[in-house]
Structures are given as structure tokens and as C-alpha cells.
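Protein modeling request. Please complete all fields; requests missing the sequence field cannot be processed.
Requester role: graduate student
Desired output: 3D structure, C-alpha cell encoding
Chains: 1
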Amino acid sequence: MMSCKCTYAPNSSHTTCSNPLPPLVKVSSAFSRDRSFNRRHVVVAGVSIFWANVGTVAVAAASMSASMLSGSNSARKASLFVKRGMQLLVQGNVEASLTMFENALLSDPRQKPYLWQRGLSLYYANRFAEGAVQFREDVAVNPNDTEESIWCFICEARVQGVENARKQFLEGNAEDAKSAILAACRTPYGLRSGDYMASLAKVHCKCRGWEL
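Delivered output (212 residues):
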């Protein structure tokens, strides 16, 4: 063990030691450079990981954005097809309207339960079973819509037979029904409103050869 003798000088504020402790060893410049080098590597690695994560997030965000944009474009295209189909049905072109509604479904199949216009065109194209399916899907997502429920029943009645339909719902007075529809078409509202269902009543008359 190293021994140390300390002497105090009265006229001095310092104490002298016969065996002073060795000075602190200086870190070599090479070691300092190595530590600096290591720090740089850590920083570079950290920055690389950060930007890699940023890149991953950016790619995911871009993918999500593209997916949302694609869905938005599909819905927009479907909406245009539906509008065109409605115009064609108002003009009495049932088959062409159906083509537009089918195009709408191809563009955005999610619209299927809400495409009641397609159900109307299917009915007037005498495709009653398909019309019933369309209206049933509509009623499933909107059970409070009694109009679609009635159209669904009418389609099913045409498939199952008039007698069964009469027993369940319909009164079966065809002449009274014809008179009521013609009268509705001839009202000022029926003639000039441009309402889709008022126009549908005219299509109904046209498909049955009724003179307005």
C-alpha cells in the first residue's frame, strides 16, 4: 500500500504531500476518435431506422389513401350509372335502364341493397323473381320503407300466382287500379312535376298499352 506523508506549512495555504497521487490518465486521441466514430454510427443508425419507419408509415398511408380514392371513384361511377338508368326508365326504355343499373353494380357492388330503381326496372322487364330479390335486400337494410315491401310482394305475387296474392294482400280489382293510375298520371303533378315515381306511373301505363 502506498504511504503518504503530508506537511502543513504555516505561511502557506497549501499542504504538500511526499507521495502525491498520480495525475488522471488522459484518454488517448485514438480512443476519443473511436468513441466519436461509434456515436456517429449510433446516430446514423437511429436516423436510418427513423426514416425507415417514416417510409413504412408513408407507404401504408399511401396505400390506404389509394384504397379510399378507389372506393370513392367506384361510388361516383355507380352514381352516374344509376342516374342514367333512371333517365332511361323515365323515357320508357326499360332494358337500357337495366343495363345502366347492372353497370352500377359492377362499379360498386356495395350499392346492391339500395338500388330499388333496379327492382322497378326488373319488374317492368317481367323479371319478377329477380325483382323480388332486389326489393327484399332493400327492405333488409331499410325495414321502415313500406313502398319497397309492397313492390317485393307484387313481384312475388307474379311468381306465385294471383290467387295466392289475393289471399294475402291484393284486392284484385284490376279496373279500379287502372282508373286510379290513369287519373294520377293526368293530374297537374303527374304531368309536370318530373317526380320519378310519377314518371314510373306513366311507364306502367305504357307497358300495358293504356292510353294516357
